[in-house]
Amino acid sequence: MSKRPSIVFLIADDHRHEALGSSGNSVVRTPVLDELAADGAAMQGAHIFGGLTGAVCAPSRACIMTGRSIFRSMIGCDPAEWTHSTDIRPEVPLLPERLRGAGYQTYAVGKWHNDKASFARSFAGGDKLFFYGMSDHWHVPVQSFDPEGRYGKEREYVETRHSSEVFADAAIDYLRRQDGEQPFFLYVAFTAPHDPRTAPEPYASMFRPEELPLPPNFAAEHPFDNGDLGVRDERLASVPRREEEIRRHMADYYAMIAHLDAQVGRIVDCLKAKGLYDDTLLVYTADHGLSVGQHGLMGKQNVYDHSVRIPLLLRGPGVEAGAKPPGLLSNIDIAPTVAELAGLPEQPDADGVSFADLLRGERAASSDAGERASTSASESESAAEPFQPRTYVCTAYQDLQRMAKDRRWKLIRYYRSLASEAGADRVQLFDMEADPWETRDVSGDPANRHEMERMARLLRDWMDRHDDILRHVPILGPTIPGGDSV
Predict the structure, then answer these.
(1) Which residues have C-beta within 8 Å of that of residue 324, sequence separation ≥ 6?
(2) Is domain 399-465 given the CATH code 1.10.1790 in the classification?
(3) pLDDT tens digits for range 194-246
(4) pTM, whole model, 2 decimals?
(5) DSSP strand E in 299-452: where?
(6) CATH code of domain 6-379
(7) Helix/strand/coil (H, E, C) string of 35-75?
């Protein structure tokens, strides 16, 4: 690539993978994002690494921006200092920080839910900056860029237009000032579709609740204590869940996404009008997904696919058009990939794996390192097959849940909390080929014992490699189906 691409990095809050037309959802309306998917690559297997706090967005954003695990990127996420901090370690480089050092003009708009020091060293400019987890979308406390990086509360002022429009306007104002001479990294972090889900008209009335089909995994209640059933998100709807109430939540969720899609469209139109579109790498992703009634849950504080799978769309230089790779990815893989596409040298201490070869349609021999290791002979990769960064992924949630997933099977381990009696000491096993909505736990079937033990070994290896705080607790034991060997 003779010219370094500019980058527009768009990240949503609570947008699950399934809630896109390009992911097969026939109800939600996302024409702009669907066009990005068609013109670029729509990654089908992107998962979050997880988090040790109920506010999953902060650790997820740290993983995305650093390419490191939560245990290595964040303060307070190792066994000796577990304090639920949202701060990124000062010695850990962030993607925009590296790009800034390489001559990119870095500019931020919208939400930054990590510490202000990591923001200050990453960005040389910005506007409409939001340093909280959530707010009323019609009363958004924002700040202007501070060259000294202090961002005290006294600098805040309130925007009374819808948040998605406020952030899109600020991004467009920046793009209108660009002449294409210096590559830029524009980071636009929306707070939609996070609740309170209050889209403007005509989007608010776009979806009729009574016409929305409930997902196959809708349930009135979760079947057991997952350790966090009392978190704020779970109190957004009555328990047991009522079908008409969940449909209303779904309509509001889809409305926020449709409005967000339109704001992304305005940013894309500006790039085209400025003649920058073809030289710009666009990335669209989210910090995590959301339940909205699936499995009897409302929030993201779980490791089912609706909460841990995220959209990941890339379009522009270095991306083969029309690709929908099914391979498994972790959100720690995003920073190394964008860095490679921008021409940065490989970061040797990153936990993530670049999938730039996959975007370019190239083929490569597999590595047997880490999560890239094949899990069976039938899954082994060769130079004759498309490059796949990972054959399995894992996710952590607090001291309550861990997940391992390969191309067919998914194991979830639940724990009783280290700090309380919340949670259940048990496992679930799902055959994702036969049951993609995770409705049938087959962990009790003796025929699946081999898969239980194999998935448990993958999870154990992952926990050991990343110094997980629960790595010394058996995954399968005398009280857990599957034996006591793992």
Answers:
(1) 22, 37, 41, 42, 43, 44
(2) no
(3) 999 999 999 999 999 999 999 999 999 999 999 999 999 999 999 999 999 99
(4) 0.94
(5) 312-315, 328-330, 393-397, 401-405, 409-414, 426-431
(6) 3.40.720.10
(7) HHHHHCEECCEEECCEECCCCCHHHHHHHHHHCCCHHHHEC
